[in-house]
Amino acid sequence: MAIKTKLLGLVLVFSFCAWAEEAPTVGDFEACFNRNKPAYVTLEGVRAIAITPTRAVSFERPRSFVKYDPFLNLYVLRSTTPLSPVPQNEERALKKGEWLASVSHTSAVSIGKLGALTSGLDGFDGFDGFTAKATRGAIVTGVCCDMYGVARNEGNFIGNRYLEHIVAYDTVYYGDVGARFAQQDTHIVVTHVDPFSNSPLRQGDRLVRLDKKQVNELQHVQETFLFSPKDTLLNAEVMRAGQRITLSLHVKPRRLIPLAQETYLEALGMVFDGGLVLRRVEANSLAQTQGLEAGDKLLQINTQPLKTPTQVRTLLGALPKNQTHHMLFDRKGFHFFITLKIPQQ
């Protein structure tokens, strides 16, 4: 009888997939809970979700873990016994307005629609019109019960593409090609270039093709770089001053996670907060050898006053190369200078 009931539930799920334009009900997702329940596990004293047969993720701090990703606020755990991960689907294939539900380990269901997939590195995929606040750590599923991500309990969720990426590495790793991009109409344009990265890109370049594919969406470009393995070489075509140029982009580890307060001075061992106060100074770095300490505040470079990380990135990209520049810092009312040189690329 139990087998017949389970089969009936699956038949109802697959039948519902055929007419999924109608609003689903909580009952429609009961089979999803039963199907995905084995993926909810307890490892190292915390509730987690199996992503692969050997790795799981959790928002709770476990007794031991492989790594913690501060961008996603997730812990990656390793299991010594085989896990039963949820069948995952491609969330980037979803369209705005498609039905989704968050289904927790207690079978609590909240139904709504996809608001939008994030278009950059400043947010996460969003919910729209959910019947209740999604439970943090709940599996986000569609009407066919496949997993699209994990709810963050803030009206959005972490998509499978990020989950698959973080469980693939033992340390926090995101790829970088030494530049930042913005969407301008249907064009992807380089807005900043890290002067310490040796990137062949230049501010104002318009990205046309990436790995022989035409690009017009910022999300695709950003995530191609983020998720590419270290030392990958990506072929790119850009428009620069009216000419089409072919470049080879070398993917290196990103110095800071997405959403961090980036100035490009991280290459010299300086990590700032949003007010340009040093959060930390890396050991054995140029910043340390010049005597900088956590708490020092950057005031200006040469004669240019600075207040935000974006202003620093913009200024560094415009400074003459292979020349000495002066950085003014404040330490509890005491002002002092250190020197800076932008390398010739």
Care to give the gist of this entry?
With 345 residues, the chain is of the alpha+beta class.
Tell me what the structure shows.
With 345 residues, the chain is α+β, with helices and mostly antiparallel strands. It folds into 3 domains: 2-165, Thrombin, subunit H, CATH 2.40.10.120; 175-253, Roll (Pdz3 Domain), CATH 2.30.42; 265-341, Pdz3 Domain, CATH 2.30.42. Helices cover 16% and strands 35% of the residues. It has 6 helices and 25 strands. It has helices spanning 2-18, 30-36, 160-166, 218-227, 286-289, 309-318, and strands at 40-43, 46-50, 55-58, 67-69, 74-78, 99-103, 109-116, 125-128, 139-141, 147-151, 156-159, 175-176, 179-184, 187-193, 206-210, 213-214, 233-240, 243-250, 252-253, 270-272, 278-281, 297-301, 304-305, 324-331, 334-341. The strands form 6 sheets. A 6-stranded antiparallel β-barrel has the order 6-7-8-11-10-9. Strands 13, 14, 15, 16, 17 and 18 form a 6-stranded antiparallel beta sheet that branches. Strand 17 (233-240) and strand 18 (243-250) form a beta hairpin. Helix 1 packs across helix 2. The longest helix is centred in the N-terminal third of the chain and has 17 residues, at 2-18. The termini are far apart. Mean pLDDT is 90; it is low at 1-16.
